[in-house]
């Protein structure tokens, strides 16, 4: 069962005039077919697209939920593949003192690492990534964190009790308190 909703968010320097991209535009940027911000309503400057390394969780979401059958472009150089979540945020924020860079991370890390400090999250298809739009599925990129147990596990076993508790309102409130997007609306 999903216990928390998650998504991939895209961010740029706060000085970049672009506020929204379509999912197709994101795919075109990361496949190398869109290479200049002017092609998506921004300034006439090249796009510096940072990536995450293959095998990572955010890259797996990028490949499955965004790129689909479109292959990712090869990075311009090795510096454009950033191994840590904090590193990609810092790289986009500081890229050559210009607002040309774009990066991505999971929503949880964007909130946890103070995304607003010099960066902004982009809307995708006109929908801003918020707890509400991620929970209700209106933000166009979807994934989740799951609690999994064997179907034969007795409901009164410690595993069954924990499983049920994670889906309870109390468990969902804790998930939200810890900074994740609970699948149920948290209560006060």
List the helices and strands and how they pair.
Layout: E1 2-6, E2 8-13, E3 20-21, H1 23-31, E4 48-49, H2 57-67, H3 85-94, E5 101-106, H4 107-112, E6 119-121, E7 123-124, H5 131-135, E8 143-146, H6 158-167, H7 169-177, E9 181-182
Spatial separation of the terminal alpha carbons: 24 Å
- Overall pLDDT score: 90
Strand content: 15-25%
Helix/strand order, N-terminal first: EEEHEHHEHEEHEHHE
Cross-sheet strand order for the largest sheet: 4-5-2-6
- Count of β-strands: 9
Uncertain regions spanning at least 5 consecutive residues: none
Structural commentary:
- This protein has helices at 23-31, 57-67, 85-94, 107-112, 131-135, 158-167, 169-177; strands at 2-6, 8-13, 20-21, 48-49, 101-106, 119-121, 123-124, 143-146, 181-182.
- It has 188 residues and is α/β, with parallel strands linked by helices.
- The strands form three sheets. It has a four-stranded mixed beta sheet. A three-stranded antiparallel beta sheet has the order 8-1-9. A two-stranded parallel ribbon has the order 3-7.
- The radius of gyration is 18 Å and the shape is elongated.
